[in-house]
Amino acid sequence: MVPQQALVLRNGKRIEMIAEHLVVGDIVFVKGGDKIPGDLRILESQGCKVDNSSLTGESEPQTRGVDCTDENPLETKNLGFYSMTCLEGTACGIVTGDSTVIGRIASLASQVGNQKTPIALEIEHFVHLISGLAVGVGILFFIISVSMGYSPLNSIIFCIGIVVAYVPKGLLATVTVCLSLTAKRMTKKNCLVKNLEAVETLGSTSVICSDKTGTLTQNRMTVAHMWFDNLIHNADTSEDQTGELFDQSSQSWHALGKIATLCNRAEFNADQEDLPISKRTVNGDASEAALLKFTENVLGKVMERRQKNEKVFEIPFNSSNKYQVSIHKLEDSPKHSYLPVMKGAPERILDRCSTIMIEGQEYPLDEEMKELSDSVYGPGESRKESTWCLSIHASFFLWVWLPF
């Protein structure tokens, strides 16, 4: 393997050297595409962004600058870490030390031993207790047999028999069978047990921390609430629409339904027309699948509506833009006009809207209305609901909540 090189300022000259030869106080220069050769305190930066995903787990590029923004070294923007990649821009920094952050993390990970589970500790304690008891009773019976006139050989055989009789020969098989049966029952509930000893430990778990959506859930979403006409409506996702109904004659709902139908890339898989809508499999993102099933339940014939309003342009959703835009050619328009629709994160959509539709009328989207919208979708986030903002003509917007 080729050793990593570093561009270093030595004796007033920029020279390339092997990164292993860096010392504390060296000034290092990095540019887009370079791997940072050591932990650096940033001295100068021109649009420098780094990828810290292997260190922090965050995939978004992180901006590096000269200002200290946080006391936590992993959060501040004036430090660059060893082996991280500079994605764009340039920067120079001073090497801070030999004990790098990534090295300390690797050291901590390597120091973690294979700790015994509670059930293993209990079995070990029980075996020690039984072993001591067996040896003690065996010696006692040996002394008694000798005192009663038995030969030493017979006394020893008698002692060994007592010790062997105390050994719990069925303990291992019993524990293994019990744990296996428990793991089998958990498998029926879609919980795969890779380590049998973890079954007993899992029963003592009170808190599980997970950073990724869908890790513990099934990555399925449904539409829960909608906000239009200044009212929060419960979404009815039942097949026969027997739940709480909302005013489907509202022009605001017509606009919302049109956006959710057209600005959506999810599609039902083929040959599922005979299945209930909630049971159909969808090819697409979980949130878009939720919108698709909801609009199919309420409006019906979503795929036909899309075919009648041909999509001519689209900007797909991505984590950087946090919005999706599509333009459709309206079939029912005599002049074949085009309709732009948008959905995405509330803060991104609000910045691109100038009006809001309430009961079919458009009103200016002023600061008071923005504060009202913030107060509406705030509780949705506290309920762990994902919030989508929908916009038509890029002018007014509506809300949809999707819980995990």
TrEMBL record:
Its main location: membrane. GO terms for molecular function: ATP binding; ATP hydrolysis activity; P-type potassium:proton transporter activity; P-type sodium:potassium-exchanging transporter activity. Keywords: ATP-binding, Hydrogen ion transport, Ion transport, Membrane, Nucleotide-binding, Translocase, Transmembrane, Transmembrane helix, Transport. SUPFAM superfamilies: Calcium ATPase, transduction domain A, Calcium ATPase, transmembrane domain M, Metal cation-transporting ATPase, ATP-binding domain N. It is a multi-pass membrane protein. The chain crosses the membrane at residues 126-149, 155-179. Its EC number is 7.2.2.19. One of its GO terms (cellular component) is plasma membrane. It catalyses: K(+)(out) + ATP + H2O + H(+)(in) = K(+)(in) + ADP + phosphate + 2 H(+)(out). Signal peptide: none annotated. Pfam families: Cation_ATPase, E1-E2_ATPase. It is found in: Membrane. Residues 1-109 form the P-type ATPase A domain. InterPro entries: ATPase_P-typ_cyto_dom_N, ATPase_P-typ_P_site, ATPase_P-typ_TM_dom_sf, ATPase_P-typ_transduc_dom_A_sf, ATPase_P-type_domA, Cation_transp_ATPase_P-type, HAD_sf, P_typ_ATPase. Composed of two subunits: alpha (catalytic) and beta. This is H(+)/K(+)-exchanging ATPase. It comes from Eleutherodactylus coqui.
